[in-house]
Amino acid sequence: MGKKVTTKIIHNGSDPNKHYGSINIPIYKNSTLIFKNYRSFLDAKKNKFDLPYYGRINTITTKKFAKVITSLYNSKFTVLTSSGLSAITLTLKSFLKKNDEVLITENCYEPVFNFAKNELEKFGIKVHFYSNNCKNLQNFINKKTKLIYVESPSSLNFNVEDLVNISRIAKKYKLISVIDNTWSTFLGCNPFNYGLDVVIESATKYISGHSDNFLGISTTRSKIIYNKIKSTAVRCGDFVSSESCYAAFNGLKTLKLRLENHSKNALEIFKFLKSQKKIKDIKYLPDIMNKNHELWKKYHSLSNGLITFSLKNNAPIEKFIDNLKLFKLGFSWGGYESLILPINNLKPTKKITTNNKYWFRIHVGLEDVNDLKQDLENAIGIYDKQ
């Protein structure tokens, strides 16, 4: 079996000899499992995270997918959850209790901000939202601090963190370090190489790749950390279906090809937007003028389809959005289609005012790039006439 990650993507998890010649692992659907005898029942009960025990905890299909993710990240243990957000919230809940403190990047995914403000603080956990500044970060740390949560690159303004420094600070103060790696996937960055403790990825996005699946990943090299997260997931009743893992298995096979084409198309769209007089600002990490570019290059080897930009005109944004035909208005990203989302706040920690300008985050899909350029050009032209 090959050791390169692109070979692992294709072959890991496939075992035709055990599944009547089927290349893909079948969907094992079960809530109840039948045990051979009392001894096998006791063994499964004692090792419920590792052996088939109950469908809400594991199925053969979900265990196989977790094993594949573990091999691709070169970690040791993986917890699968019902969504990317649940992977984050369950991981945070696993290590935090009343009177603890946690550091969360101010550039976090907005639902994470909402969870921290409305759920963590409700249970007496103090949350500090830190800026991308390691000196600033250390000012918040005290004996009550338990965990650092990083999202790098972030999903709206594409802020990049210095992972080596984050890891160094976490180890210095004996904190758990957690990163959301969804932007890059394991193909673009492996945070374990820089010393982080837990890597989270929303497999809803690029791994599944077809805008029809929900799945979260929380993977680690520590058995202690794994047991805490898995126990929390089980106690909270969170689980992932075999169907979700089967869909992710299928998406995984074409992940590298899709990411390369998303990146290729996005570069062409960036060049097009840069040539347009009505574009005010553009945030795109492969742009050498982007303030995060050098740090991004240090840690990441692959781009994706995300670009954020703003328009000069102050006309109603529907004049732009509603005249797009190929860029569909919708949440999320990572599917095959092009999407656009209006944003009036690139940081959830920043107070929204009526004077906030609108940004547009686009996910450049796998359509013909010239058609996408034409779509944007037509909509910008109509918007500019207002």
Distance between the termini: 60 Å
Question: What string gives the helices and strands in order?
Answer: HHHEHEHEHEHEHEEHHHEHEHEEEH
Report the strand count.
12
Number of domains: 2
* CATH class membership of the largest domain: Alpha Beta
Biggest sheet record:
7 strands, mixed
Integer average pLDDT: 93
CATH architecture of the largest domain: 3-Layer(aba) Sandwich
CATH superfamily of the largest domain: Type I PLP-dependent aspartate aminotransferase-like (Major domain)
- SS-based structural class? alpha/beta
Spatial strand order of the main sheet: 1-7-6-5-4-2-3
Radius of gyration (Å): 22 Å
Quaternary structure? single chain
Tertiary shape: globular
